[in-house]
Design brief:
The structure is a homotetramer.
Chain A: H1 2-13, H2 20-43, H3 50-77, H4 89-97, H5 100-116, H6 123-131, H7 135-141, H8 143-153, H9 155-180, H10 191-202, H11 215-220, H12 223-261, H13 270-278, E1 281-285, E2 290-292, E3 300-306, E4 309-313, E5 316-320, E6 325-326, E7 341-343, E8 347-353, H14 354-362, H15 365-385
Helix pairs in contact in A: 1-2, 1-3, 2-3, 3-5, 5-6, 8-12, 9-10, 9-12, 12-13
Chain lengths: 393, 393, 393, 393
């Protein structure tokens, strides 16, 4: 039972981590979501021939079936989450069921079951709830986590910007109400009505259904509106910059995991690995350029971020790709490069210079001892295997 | 009397600094402001039942009462402001009364008292002045200071951008006036009228109430308008980037205050603390990772920006949170870590490497002597207390 | 004669460099420009009473007089420009007369003289040429140079973005023409007409005078328009980022000039000063904090970017402001601070740490020798004067 | 034959690399494209006199002729591409023919030949295909590669943003459909119709042909639309920042190539050159400033990014420009500057300090030996030539 659960967990949650059956599972669900949401959207077009509406009903049944199975599976394997805090299986599952994504999963299939149970539900509301299924997509692209993280990180500036925007909106709307409510009582008859105009204007949508007609109102569209438009640009700027910064932070985590995979560094603590990751220097190499040459002094180790490189070995070329590294010998002794390595494509590498690394070692003799020991072990293993990995160039 | 004043000052001005009674006071006022402004906004909707308009009047009375008390309190405790320059109580209070926020506070409650005194006041103007109460919100979010600081910092680029925008606006409007004033004398009859079109167009609001109809006017909406739109994007870009930069500067101040709180650094001068703050390296640790391990060489001290960490002590886990630090022993001797510390949540830490710190000490022997002395004192105190803080891991 | 010319040159061109009579001259001209342009703009409002139109005519005469005198003066003193290349006075002046700003100066006053000489000129064109006077403003704010520099620096990305935008515009317009030219032959009858729609849409102005009405046209406003809007956002982003970068570069020049003013550095070459400027660390000090304390080791020199600081001297406090520096003694010997210096306002300082500076000296023994010599000279001078500047704290 | 092919390859593909006959070839084609596309665009204006339409036909014939020749030439010389992978000439050419730019080249001239062969083709489609010729422009500005590279680099964030935008669009459109489809069944009758409104609104185009009229719909234009507009700003921000970052990366490649051209560095591996390039410090020098002075210690080598400098030599001034470097002697011995070098214009230089360089050498004794050897060779050559290049100042 528990073994089964573990396997299902790997499939259901492993797609993002690149586990192939997990990716197939994700791909299947993404397809169902896209087809189903398209059917829901087109289902509101009443002139379509009855054939299509029939098809859409069938798609709905299949999709709700798939989503129900998915939900039950996720609930079942919630116990396998290594980050779970509560040990009791019921509490752990309840906790999962209360996460935002799990709630959306339930709410999005609810209209179908309510309809089955003949519970009356407003068709408009049903459409809205069913459309929520698109949110499930965000789980698979990682965008849900990403946006959540950005909102959390930029909480303070966004709140400050929201306060500025609210004040700007109220001030501009009140001014418009003052100027226009006598000339256009049907359009600017109250501040809430003027606020509709304010939002449409300050967001620069500018439908033109409400426009100032008095000279005062026209003049008003000048200075304060320009200021208001500036204020409305603030949250967009903050969101965009927060988004980009969070993506850079994730790039750093990728680097971190890359470093953590190197045998030499595997036993280091998280912070120590972060230090190593932060002294890596990004290097971009053009396709065709030689990164290391046989016989050169080995003075740096390289981690491959993107691109492919070719190692010239006596047994023909060996290709290294994203996530691999080469030249680690440089960190242990000042030997010579044993092979020439050429960039096949434009490559982004991270270079750890031996000198920087030695500088780091000086400040922590412990790390040095550990590395000497690991290196000795590794050398012994290497001699045992009678071969040398191309990564030791 | 003076003790009372000091207590009231702590409550009235201490919310931003996290003093709990001050936060309660702020929360109360924020609630009153939001309820009151909502009532003012809805009060302009004339079709609402009389019950609501009655309720709004009551809210107004309560809110004005609260704001009046608040204003009097702030005026009273203005003497406690540690940054005040003038010693004479009347001058110090007058000076406070003339700050922009204090003026807004008075102006926003003025219509109520003028009405009470039967001074005739235009109802539109009264609504506008009352709506100013929303500005009070900015005091509590810190957004008022923030925007002011950004405007001050980016003064020069904003002025340059404003000059560029003005010239672009006048040129585009004059061209539109030339092209259209014969075809549409009612809409483009003068340059000021064309400038209304210019602002609506260049800010990309684009209502569509004024549009070019002549071929020349249409062609005009091409090249110069595109250039003009580019120019209008400048101030928004400057504001957004200034906003983000100011927030980063404030993050630095948070770091600075974090460092200033460490006993070792408390007696350093402001500039020396800034130096320490600037050599701190940001490190992001994922939930579950070990930051330091018992028995490792202690080679860095960590300051917690966000997140929680758990120290494994013989008496069970101890949790460290934002603003705390650990591992400071590393700066004094090259001892071993006495406990393992694990990240409970994703954490942002600032790491001060012993090597960097020693490098700093080399250039200022004074600082070293001071630290040796403080460390000796602290060690003695620690031995006296017979215990060791978890922060000394 | 030449002495007079030199004095006039200092007044006419010295405003930007802070020479007081030059600033008065600039202020006078800026006032004339603003008043005159306002008069030109309002002069197109035909309903204004005759009095105003009369006033505007008088303003025009005075303004053209002032601008003519200004132009002649600038032409006369063009010989004094230290950067001029041609020695012959006529050629040097001709060269000045052909700079963009000088051409605008002539063109902007031309309509007046043409009218005087009874040369017929279209009144619309005359208004346009007169409105060009606003461009003169850009000379005084430095915005003209700034925008020119940004366009020059970002030439390549802007050209690439312009190519992308043109292709996007043509493609979207051609698609709209295909979809709509049969349904709306009056609005989308040709590609040029559709391009008017394309510009209005892709710049997000969106008047709404031309909108797609066919289902294909509606669908078209979807994907390609969203892509097109993205492309149109490129040049705005490039301009804004180029603007901010250029302003940062100018900040560096301010630092450079600040460093170049320090007696110790005055004889260094430009590149050497740039090196010193680049190792300065920005430090922000809050009002009230002590930057250096009497008796501390003098280990850094500070340059004041913004804000004011107070030196406690036996003769009372001395205030230091923007552009001044203190603590330079730290670069010469490792003496003690002779006074405590406190920040009066929030200050942005640049700190040059003695250690960094010594590191720089190690790599260029020449610089060290030069500094020793200057320091010796300066010490002698200081002893002669019998006083020590507060900047030597 | 092969020699001819090589020459033609140099002309056809060498324009971007600055080969003069290649630039002439590019200029000719760019002119033909611009004239031809203008003719195509104006050709859709039906009221133009017959003369023009005749002229446009002639332009079409000439242009298609030129493009056909260009296509055949490019296909012929595809074998010369040094990056080609397949050796077989037919496969190599087929591979070229299937690149996006080559496909566009064919498709854009197809309508002409189809018309010649009397194959019926919809005139609208023909116009669209012919308008594709503008895409050819992107080849010459490098913008095609640039946009492709940005899309590739920012793939992940753009996908995440696209998911967020799609969800926001569907949610806002569904809400609008719910609120408005009863009040305005002709405009908001289905979700696809509401999505047209959603795109027009969230991209802030805001035509105003569809606007909410119910109170609920109006309220809706508030909160979710503001959020949606924020989401729509994400991809624009990512594109702009990716564009700027890619341009910076290309600047780094320019630096890299600049460094790679220095004789001293020519034999280094790509990664080693990248290291040298990354320790270069940008320095901006104002026109007229002295960069090095005769007799100073030679402690840095300078690479010229932009601007011109003047070397004072006994034989009169020698001018150095973009791509040149000076002061390389500083890397070999600590000699004295042999000439004063002054900036003629504002210059952007890259400075390689001798100290940084020596620091680099310490960590790779190999590099040092190589440099000593090259320096010895170069010195011998210099003595042979009996002259010294001004770049050795």
């Amino acid at each position: 039972m528990q073994r089964w659960r573990h396997t299902v967990y790997a499939i259901v949650e492993g797609g993002q981590r690149g586990y192939p059956p997990g990716r197939a599972f994700d791909l299947f669900l993404v397809t169902v979501i896209l087809v189903n949401v398209t059917a829901i959207v087109l289902g509101t077009v009443e002139d379509l021939p009855a054939f299509w509406h029939g098809l859409f009903s069938h798609i709905e049944v299949v999709a709700v079936g798939a989503f129900t199975v998915e939900y039950v599976l996720r609930l079942w394997v919630a116990l396998e989450d290594p980050r779970r805090i509560y040990r009791h299986p019921v509490i752990a599952r309840l906790r999962y069921a209360l996460t935002p994504l799990a709630i959306i999963d339930v709410v999005a299939i609810l209209p179908f079951y309510l309809h089955l149970l003949s519970v009356p539900i407003d068709p408009s509301v049903a459409v809205l709830l069913r459309a929520l299924r698109l949110f499930k997509l965000l789980r698979f692209t990682g965008a849900f986590d990403l946006v959540g993280e950005v909102l959390r990180n930029e909480r303070q500036p966004l709140l400050a910007a929201a306060a500025v925007v609210s004040v700007a909106l109220l001030m501009v709307s009140t001014l418009a109400y003052m100027a226009e409510h006598e000339a256009q009582p049907d359009k600017f008859g109250s501040i809430p009505a003027a606020m509709y105009w304010g939002i449409v204007t300050l967001s620069t949508v500018g439908y033109g259904d409400l426009t100032p007609i008095t000279p005062w109102g026209g003049a008003l569209t000048g200075f304060p509106v320009v200021l208001g438009v500036l204020c409305f640009a603030l949250p967009a700027g903050i969101m965009a910059s927060g988004f980009i910064e969070e993506l850079r932070r994730r790039d750093f985590m990728v680097t971190w995991h890359l470093v953590a995979k190197v045998p030499l560094f595997q036993r280091l603590s998280a912070a120590r690995i972060a230090t190593v990751a932060s002294i890596l220097k990004p290097v971009r190499i053009e396709a065709g350029a030689q990164v290391v040459r046989k016989g050169d002094a080995a003075d740096a180790v390289y981690f491959i971020l993107t691109g492919a490189l070719e190692v010239e070995t006596p047994n023909g070329p060996v290709v290294l790709g994203t996530g691999e590294f080469f030249g680690e010998r440089a960190l242990l002794d000042s030997g010579r490069r044993s092979a020439t390595i050429t960039a096949r494509t434009n490559c982004d590498l991270l270079m750890l210079q031996a000198a920087d690394f030695r500088h780091l070692l000086e400040s922590s003799p412990d790390l040095e001892a550990e590395i000497r020991r690991i290196a000795a072990e590794r050398g012994a293993k290497s001699r045992q295997a009678g071969a040398e990995s191309p990564a030791s160039a």
